[in-house]
Q: What sequence folds into this?
């Protein structure tokens, strides 16, 4: 066998230097965009709370956003699913207009009271901005895939202040049951630097306190498993209802801008007449409360239904922070049933419902440790894995691929959106383009 002319490390150093530079550029762009977005979101939320009559502007705001996307954003409306598809099957550079469109539309959604999140916005901005470097540096398709993953990691990390979770999220969200280790360095670099860039812009993230953790023992571990089954089912219910709601709205209302108009009327009426202000927007004050004292047991279901209605109608934002709300309040309710500390089970629900809905148990375990301390790691890991298994082959991202099925045979490479057709014995159909 012919020996290589140069030792392996001779080629490794340029590779490491190249990706450190590229990932840092992605992080600077994504971190700065997230900082601008979070500051705008903070202002919009404060304005809505000070002038609650703005909720009645939600239908008109939804119509305007829907019309703008119909005219300018049809090729980027798939959002996170578009990024996942481009990583798996690169076709063309994600249009730069994805970033300003999703930023402005999400801020508008929050200003007028839609129950949506913010992770989708940050991830889409990170991915779209990262992909602009493809032409600039004439990257190969394989390198472009990695760069998009770094953009996803940077966006997630910077919006939540969780660099480790952000790095793993960019690796884990693409395929169920498989990670790409060749993207470890770019994703970790982008996530860490993006978090630092956002902090340098003066952005601060909400602090959550899980309180005292019980010692590891038979009953706490068994109780976590029981609670995690419920968390996984909640994540599955959220994903299934969201997809069913979106399909229903498309069948009933053909003209896209009329969907958020109709949905906005219903959401505004519910919030105004049913005193549902705690469920509008992100709902962070209620999430903080969930760690402190018992809350009404219906809080999680009210937030779930209002978020499903908002997303199904076409309002922009994301699902993750509403899933944090649903998980924390569901854990809060289960704590009374299982006779466990409220803050501790709220913390587990916070990450485990998201783990089940997004099929990202590793990222969510790391998120728990970053937000609540390393001591929660054993419980959080158990809760996230059980929730992930119990949510089945469904999820909020329909373009996720099946790498290794969770507990039954599903063909490798199948999209989650194609799994129902496979179960019925039908040939999977190509995804329908959004209008």
A:
């Amino acid at each position: 066998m012919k020996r290589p002319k140069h030792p392996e490390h001779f080629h490794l150093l340029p590779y490491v230097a190249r990706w450190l530079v590229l990932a840092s550029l992605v992080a600077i762009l994504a971190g700065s965009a997230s900082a601008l977005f979070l500051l705008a979101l903070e202002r919009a939320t404060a304005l809505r709370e000070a002038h609650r009559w703005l909720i009645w502007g939600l239908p008109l705001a939804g119509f305007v956003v829907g019309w703008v996307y119909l005219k300018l954003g049809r090729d980027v409306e798939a959002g996170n699913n578009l990024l996942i598809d481009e990583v798996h099957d690169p076709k063309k550079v994600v249009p730069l207009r994805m970033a300003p469109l999703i930023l402005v539309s999400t801020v508008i959604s929050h200003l007028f009271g839609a129950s949506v999140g913010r992770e989708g916005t940050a991830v889409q901005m990170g991915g779209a901005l990262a992909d602009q470097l493809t032409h600039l540096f004439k990257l190969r398709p394989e390198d472009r895939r990695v760069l998009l993953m770094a953009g996803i990691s940077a966006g997630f990390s910077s919006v939540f202040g969780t660099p480790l979770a952000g790095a793993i999220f960019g690796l884990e969200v693409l395929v169920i049951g498989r990670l790409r280790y060749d993207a470890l360095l770019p994703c970790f670099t982008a996530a860490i630097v993006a978090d630092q860039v956002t902090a340098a812009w003066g952005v601060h993230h909400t602090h959550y306190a899980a309180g005292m953790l019980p010692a590891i023992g038979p009953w706490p571990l068994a109780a976590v498993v029981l609670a995690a089954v419920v968390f996984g089912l909640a994540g599955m219910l959220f994903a299934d209802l969201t997809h069913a709601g979106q399909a229903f709205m498309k069948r009933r209302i053909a003209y896209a801008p009329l969907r958020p108009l109709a949905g906005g009327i219903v959401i505004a009426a519910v919030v105004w007449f049913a005193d549902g202000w705690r469920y509008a927007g992100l709902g962070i004050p209620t999430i903080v409360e969930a760690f402190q004292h018992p809350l009404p047991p219906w809080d999680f279901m009210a937030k779930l239904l209002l978020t499903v209605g908002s997303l199904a109608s076409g309002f922009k934002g994301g699902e993750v922070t509403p899933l944090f709300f649903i998980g924390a309040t569901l854990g809060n309710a289960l704590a009374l049933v299982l006779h466990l500390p409220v803050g501790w089970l709220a913390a587990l629900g916070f990450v485990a419902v998201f783990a089940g809905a997004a099929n990202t148990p590793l990222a969510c375990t790391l998120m728990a440790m970053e937000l609540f301390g390393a001591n929660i790691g054993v419980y959080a890991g158990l809760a996230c894995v059980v929730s992930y298994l119990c949510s089945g082959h469904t999820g909020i991202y329909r373009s996720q691929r099946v790498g290794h099925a969770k507990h039954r045979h599903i063909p490798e490479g199948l999209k989650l959106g194609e799994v129902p057709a496979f179960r019925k014995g039908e040939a999977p159909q190509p995804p329908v383009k959004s209008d």
Observations:
- The chain has two domains: 12-200, 218-390.
- The domain at 12-200 is CATH 1.10.3080.10 (Clc chloride channel).
